[in-house]
Write a structure and sequence with these properties.
about 700 residues; alpha+beta; Beta-Lactamase; Aspartate Aminotransferase, domain 1; 4 domains; 7-stranded mixed beta sheet; 25 helices; 21 strands
Length: about 700
């Protein structure tokens, strides 16, 4: 059994897929292969219609299994055997589950939306679980009665009055006094609790008493040099907004922070196995070497410093465009505020652009809102959508894998994230049956109100077909869902046979049954496509079929932030109204635009081809956007080591790659993925020569990694 005499090991896994959540107990932990076998035999029994609850091993040990709420599997493994030991292990599993519910709440355990986040949250249960495991809770759990041990103190009435008075002062009906782990006195309501609740609460109090003040969440006083006690902070990690603590953003997560540290260490002369850090983690085109469009920068320079309008080196069409933009700005200065919805002339140009793009489908400038990148618009719309409490709380459907902006915004707003999975085997396509499954399940615990689609996809690089978009619109109409279409990569389409179709165009071509009823908002940005101007934070959103009263509230909401950056609005104007045939800058603009998009298409194909030559890496065609999202095979030994370190296996993989090669990628667990699969996201933005080196280094690293852990 590989356990010491008298020791017990507790294993916790997801019930549906067997993903390890934690292990506690015996100092020498069971190998990952044994853990997998224990879970596998239980799942096999379930598949045969048999519920495996306990057994004895050949060595005389005991194993007990228990699945709670079809969500969490707990397994207790003990060196000892016999019926009495099995009873003890069953009670242990019940108490551990109750402990997890006590600390995290049942909803968090039953409605698991992010396994990696749950792993982190479960750590807060360890101090209490360890109390349950240590010598059968001696001093808390009576060995004969299995109830909480109590004392019979002298002058009990005095203690009782004190405890009752303390509870009243705390405005609570529940209070107790614990001495050396035993209940000396308690309020009447305390004694009316179920025995198991008394046991766990008593253990909880004893465990807290053994922790430091900081770990208990109490402010730690500091002493100044003159011996005076300093004030504690008004804002602490314990009293800050709890939803903010749930926010995660993998694209700029721990791996990126380590990459920055490595860059600093290299600059200080420290020796590394590489000469530079290559940040292939984020779609920041210019940071990766993509050159800006000349015409855009010329107009922005003229707007920023109007004295240049008299400079003969600037073409006349750039000057004409700059004058038009400046005339629309307060005081003819790009440094002034604009209208909250955006500069009127820019919104008019955006409307004309959308109408041209969509083959003449009308577009009203009043439906256009200029935003601080697409992200600002997305978060603004989510703010409007989120309401309700408990089972009526707003649920928002997002694709898995997803861009972490969505999960982060939903966490901050306290909304419910509803995952629907893209079909990796069909090049990350959307499946209406999967949407229906996710929606039906979510309606048991929240109120689904919105469906988000990223097309072309991030991080998966797929381009949805027109038929798929039609099916999604019909689904949204049938289920009364608000559609959010993230279309920031609409010019980034590379694969033969693929074409970008805007949701608005398809919606209106489906006829009045849909075009007059389905509520839709679509987003675009200056940060992607051939522009790559991330830092200017320009973008827009177009709203379709929004209720007039809600539209008034939207105007109020955007007014609070005054306006989006005016330079970003100016850049957005140039994107939707670029040089036209016959103008001085037209030929050079077309040349630069075509070269950028052609290079991206070439690098998309190169990435797919090279990664698919590596045994253990499988990469779907990069049809569009700026990323590949290959699946990687991680050996069991590496998975075990990652689990022991408290890391997701693909996080472990990517961190090791960073330390050995200087290549910074984002693990697939940061975007969401099906249990048991592992991925990483990599941009295709580096120059072709550097991308070739990067891909070769990834190829060689994966070979070494697999060999090391096989």
């Amino acid at each position: 059994m590989m356990l010491q005499d008298g020791s017990t090991q507790l294993l916790c896994l997801t019930a549906s897929s067997g993903v390890p959540l934690f292990t506690r107990g015996a100092s020498r932990q069971l190998p990952f292969s044994v853990i997998g076998s224990l879970n596998g035999v239980h799942m096999f029994g379930g598949g045969q219609g048999a519920v495996l609850s306990s057994c004895e091993t050949e060595a005389g040990g005991g194993v007990v299994w228990r699945v709670f709420r079809d969500s969490v599997m707990l397994i207790a493994v003990s060196r000892g055997g016999g019926e009495e030991e099995q009873v003890r292990l069953r009670r242990l599993l019940e108490n551990v589950w109750s402990c997890m519910v006590l600390v995290l709440g049942q909803d968090e355990l039953v409605q698991v939306k992010n396994v990696e986040r749950l792993k982190k949250e479960l750590r807060s249960c360890f101090f209490l679980i360890d109390q349950l495991l240590e010598e059968k809770l001696q001093g808390i759990l009576g060995s004969l009665t299995h109830c909480a041990d109590s004392l019979l103190p002298p002058k009990a009435s005095i203690l009782q009055e004190t405890v009752d008075g303390f509870a009243r002062a705390a405005d609570s009906e529940f209070g107790c006094l614990i001495v050396h782990g035993r209940i000396a006195s308690a309020t009447e309501k305390w004694w009316r609790l179920a025995p198991q609740e008394v046991i766990l609460l008593s253990a909880f109090i004893r465990a807290l008493s053994s922790l430091s003040a900081t770990r208990r969440g109490l402010p730690k006083e500091k002493m100044t040099e003159n011996g005076m006690m300093s004030r504690t902070k008004v804002l602490t990690i314990d009293n800050m907004n709890p939803t903010v603590k749930k926010v995660e953003y993998a694209v700029r997560g721990p791996i990126v922070q380590r990459a920055v540290e490595l860059e600093r260490e290299l600059s200080e002369g420290m020796k590394k196995p590489f000469d530079e850090v290559i940040k292939a983690n984020i779609g920041d085109a210019h940071a990766m070497g993509q050159q800006p469009i000349t015409f855009f920068r010329q107009v922005l320079a003229l707007c920023s410093y109007p004295e240049l309008l008299s400079d003969s080196t600037f073409p006349e069409d750039a000057k004409s465009r700059a004058r038009r933009i400046l005339q629309s700005c307060g005081g003819h200065s790009m440094g002034s505020y604009s209208a909250s919805q955006g500069i009127d002339s820019v919104r008019e140009d955006v409307a004309r652009y959308i109408q041209r793009r969509d083959g003449g489908v009308p577009c009203d400038p009043d439906d256009i809102y200029l935003t601080t990148g697409a992200s600002d618009g997305i978060v603004t719309m989510l703010k409007l959508l989120v309401c309700g409490e408990g089972a009526s709380r707003t649920g928002v459907m997002i694709s898995i894998p997803q861009y972490p902006l969505y999960s982060a915004a939903l966490a901050e707003l306290g909304a419910v994230q509803i995952n629907y999975y893209l079909n990796e085997e069909a090049c990350w396509s959307m499946d209406i049956s999967e949407l229906q499954r996710a929606l039906n399940e979510a309606r048991r615990y929240c109120n689904p109100r919105a469906l988000c689609i990223i097309n072309p996809g991030n991080p998966t690089g797929q381009v949805q077909t027109r038929q798929c978009i039609e099916d999604v619109i019909r689904f949204a109409a049938k289920e009364r869902l608000f559609l959010l279409a993230d279309e920031v990569y609409q010019d980034n389409v590379y694969a033969d046979g693929c074409e970008f179709h805007s949701f608005k165009k398809v919606l209106f071509e489906m006829g009045p049954e849909y075009s007059e009823t389905v509520e839709l908002v679509s987003f675009h940005s200056t940060s992607k496509c051939y522009m790559g101007e991330c830092g200017f934070r320009g973008g827009y959103m177009e709203i379709i079929n929004m209720d007039d009263e809600v539209k008034a509230q939207l105007m109020k909401l955007v007014s609070v932030r005054l306006c989006s950056p005016v330079p970003g609005q100016a850049l957005m104007d140039l994107v939707v109204n670029p040089p036209q045939p016959g103008e001085p800058s037209y030929n050079n603009f077309i040349k630069e635009r075509t070269a950028t998009l052609s290079a991206l298409a070439e690098k998309a194909k190169l990435t797919e081809q090279v990664l698919n030559t590596v045994e253990g890496i499988s990469c779907n065609p990069v049809q569009g956007a700026m990323y590949s999202f290959p699946r990687i095979t991680i050996p069991e030994k590496a998975v075990q080591e990652a689990t022991e370190k408290g890391q997701a296996p693909d996080m472990f993989y990517c961190m090791k790659m960073l330390e050995e090669t200087g290549i910074c990628l984002v693990p697939g667990s940061g975007f969401g993925q099906r249990d048991g699969t592992y991925h990483f996201r990599m941009t295709i933005l580096p120059p072709k020569e550097k991308l070739q080196i990067l891909l070769n280094n990834v190829k060689e690293f994966h070979r070494r990694f697999t060999q090391q852990y096989s």
